[in-house]
Amino acid sequence: MKTIIIFSYFFITVIAASAQQPKTFLIDANRLVELKKKLQQKDKTILQLIDSLKKQADALLNMKPVSVMDKAFIPVSGSKHDYMSQAPYFWYDSTKPNGLPYMRKDGQRNPEINKITDHGNQDKLSSAARNLALAFYFTGEEKYAAKAAGLLRYWFFNEETKMNPNLEYAQSVPGVNTGRGIGIIETRALTGIVDAVGLLAGSRSWNEKDSKDLQQWYAQYLNWMLTSKNGKEENGAKNNHGTWYSVQAIDYALFTGDKEKAKQLAEESKRRIDSQFTKEGKQPLELARTNALGYSTMNLRGWFELAVLAEKTGVDLWQYKNPEGSGIQTVLNWLEPYALGEKKWEYQQISNYNRNEFYPILLLAAQKFNDPHYSQSTKTTGDQWMTDLLYNTKK
Questions:
Q1: How buried is 192 (Cβ within 10 angstroms: 0-12 exposed, 13-18 middle, 19+ buried)?
Q2: N or C: which end of the chain has fewer CB within 10 A?
């Protein structure tokens, strides 16, 4: 009898755990639960997508931990624990002594920036943590959680390798400054880590103390964003930088349990819609860039993430309209035919445009605006399996 009771308890616990929603903020938790059920039912399409996920995760099991300490440069603070990077569109000026100050060439990325590894390492960490955490969530295999936990501790917790929670020295311009508010856009990858942690719940490798310690780190970083000179400058940005600042601030406030602050920030973000969008749905400050189509897409993607987060605070940005009657869907409808190549782009785009970046926007738009035509115009490519997994409800 005792054996039966223990087995029954185990069975009920497993079923409850499999049905429980993970605490994610940008990834749709309902979608994850639905996918997990289909996986248990041996749905062929989902099995294929999870197989792709596992291959990615298996390759990450041998990934070397990355850290801000990896860089060969030292910030002016004297501590490698401080994140640093160089502005991507500024170049050596041969007409000036020692090439200083650097001059701006919008849209032309200076390969010099790759010598400072913090930005690249942070992006690698976010991508790896998300893929590993998803693999753990769907398979229950502890090896994926253990690897993700090790990578996260190395970046955030280990005394010898941790990052200080500030971005004082991001996107510096040689000969001009040692860091700018604009650099805060580089930490948007940290939102992916927030969702990864939610997916690790229940693992033996990442416990409640780990989560609380990480929340404390994010709370310190959010406080820096809200109170520092660089943070205030970025909050005041009128273009995509302001949008992505709001995405980060709301996400981190939600993660750290400050829903009141998250709601306040979501309400305040409406002012960005008031100033960024024209009546037709154009984004003038993005259209002024040399890669106007790419930046218009990037900013719209930011608005989609911002609206998803705002929903969790009770603020509806999907339907909000500015005084000119323009909103997120207005911008989407104006941009869509250009992004899909149905209309000729009449602004600058000096770099190749990747239409795959528009793909998840359309899939999410089909859900949020209850209009299937958005998803009907999308096409899956070989490297879009993750988007299909998380967004594509047509499967």
A1: buried
A2: N
d(CA 270, CA 354): 29
Please list, in sequence order, all residues whose beta carbon lies within 8 angstroms of the beta carbon of residue 185, skipping any fewer than 6 positions away: 234, 240, 241, 244, 245
User: In this structure, are residues 153 and 207 in contact, taking their beta carbons and an 8 Å threshold?
Assistant: no
> Is the whole model's pTM more than 0.70, yes or no?
yes
For the stretch 359-376, what's the b/e string if a residue is b when 16 or more beta carbons lie within 10 angstroms of its beta carbon?
bbbbbbbbebbeeeebbe
d(Cα 229, Cα 58) in Å, to the nearest integer? 42
In the chain, the amino acid numbered 323 is P
Distance CA(139)–CA(56), nearest Å, equals 13
Q: Which two tokens stand for residue 261?
A: 């602050």
Structure tokens at 195: 């969702």
Pick the closest to residue 206 from 296, 270, 129, 282 (CA basis).
129
352: left (phi over 0), alpha (psi -120 to 50) or beta: beta
Dihedral (Cα; 233, 237, 241, 244), 10-degree rounding? 90
CA 341 centroid distance within chain: 26
Per-residue pLDDT of the chain (395 residues; tens, 9 = 90+): 443 333 333 333 333 444 579 999 999 999 999 999 999 999 999 999 999 999 999 999 999 999 999 999 999 999 999 999 999 999 999 999 899 999 999 999 999 999 999 999 999 999 999 999 999 999 999 999 999 999 999 999 999 999 999 999 999 999 999 999 999 999 999 999 999 999 999 999 999 999 999 999 999 999 999 999 999 999 999 999 999 999 999 999 999 999 999 999 999 999 999 999 999 999 999 999 999 999 999 999 999 999 999 999 999 999 999 999 999 999 999 999 999 999 999 999 999 999 989 999 999 999 999 999 998 877 654 456 677 788 765 54
Rounded to the nearest 10 degrees, the angle between the axes of helix 240-255 and helix 208-227 is 140
The helix or strand, by DSSP H or E, that contains position 169, with its residue range, turns out to be strand 169-172
Residue 204 exposed, middle or buried by CB count within 10 Å (0-12, 13-18, 19+): exposed
Residue 109 contacts residue 90 (beta carbons within 8 Å)? no
